[in-house]
Amino acid sequence: MTGLSVPAVWRGRIHRYRLVAGKCNSCGRIHYPPSHSCPHCGSRGLAEVELPRMGRLVSYSIVYSVPSESRSKAPVILGLVDLGVARVISEITDAGPEDISVGMQVEAVFRRITEDGETGVLVYGVKFRPVKEA
Amino acid sequence: MPQPRPETATGIHGWGVYVPRFRIKMEYIAREWGWSDSQWKALAMIEKAVAGPDEDSTTMGLEAAAYALKRAGVDPGDVGAVFFGTESKPYAVKPSATIIAEALGVTPVTMASDLEFACRAASEGLRASLGLVASGMIKYAIVIGSDTAQANPGDVLEFTASSGAAAYVVGPSSGSAAVFEGSYTYVTDTPDFWRREGSPYPRHGEGFTGEPAYFAHIIGAVRGLMDNLGFKPSDFKYAVFHQPNGRFPLKVGEMLGFKPEQLKAGIVTPLIGNTYNGSALIGLARILDNAAPGDRVLVAPFGSGAGSDAYSIIVTDAIEEKRGKAPKVDELVSKKIMIDYSTYAKFRNMIKIVRE
Fold it and tell me: Is the ipTM of this structure higher than 0.90?
């Protein structure tokens, strides 16, 4: 058991499933995941916007030492993805360290983010993967 | 004057497919378990698609459904049913259909359920959708067939059991890319393939899966449909059947009187394996990717246990503007990352990890 909070997983589902961010009505900046107030100006006047599903990899980190529930995905690549209107931190999937580079185009895909042990809740949401030519 | 068939009031507004990128060659499976190459060559197989460690039938089904909605150009709020056909549910109890409906923005005013009938569950959802749409109870339905098919390591089934998904948006015939002309279902209690509660892998009746199951039920459904509609095999431009391997669909087509050129456009299993609930529906998608207005298509999924549905559809002019709105099957099949047997075994949870 990793002790995930089912209510917290449930509350965040729309943001994770549809890549919904918060847009500040005061300063106009967009942040993800959405919070109760704008992280830039503190305003509580926020609207929800769906983010673009294509972006570029700005930076990444390769995590070799992972929890046992992530062992089959190791090494796990965490990327900073620029979507034009906002930047998001996401796992980069369908790729190994040799497949990625800064500036490469990535696309959103719907995946299992994590799971609460072998009997607990499954957490789904958006990750990014390299765009591949046919 | 005869009443028009209810199916003629319905059509396909969008179709979408998802194929995971990972592929394993048949040689690797044969080498690992001491099979002769003649074994997989007799199944007319080359490679199969393998879901990644963070993919399951729900994630693949959502991707296929999103593509189908894109082609349909339908407001998610107008969708009144989401039917998810699978035999590889991530949760034994809890619907995947609600996860997909939520991710697509279809919730909350919609029917949503997971259906089970081996490889034919999605097809049952398709036929139910025709009735719901034709009756006016709902405007659109999304039908999804998705599986991460299981096979006991070393079993001959391992050559074909693969991962993939297909989805269709069904709605009124007006504005659709293909109109249904009729449908027919044929089922009996035939234990050709099963997986008991709690068992990780299915069992099958070897040769028993062929004649009394696959062939008898598809032939029963297709002949019933053609008799009802007064059609013969030459009336169809294409025919697509469930594809447990690369050989069976050609054989059943030949038994029914179809020619190889009517069958080949819809056969994808040699390149990606048997995607179970996605199998015939991915084949149909490949046909829609290339069909011309006026083409008549026969599609007949099959599920063990056992049953088959046959549908006749006519492609309309609207197909031209929908085709390019989402990736074609050939494009998805060609985007691949080759893996070896040990990576495949890890991705498909065949290696036991003791969790800390």
Answer: yes
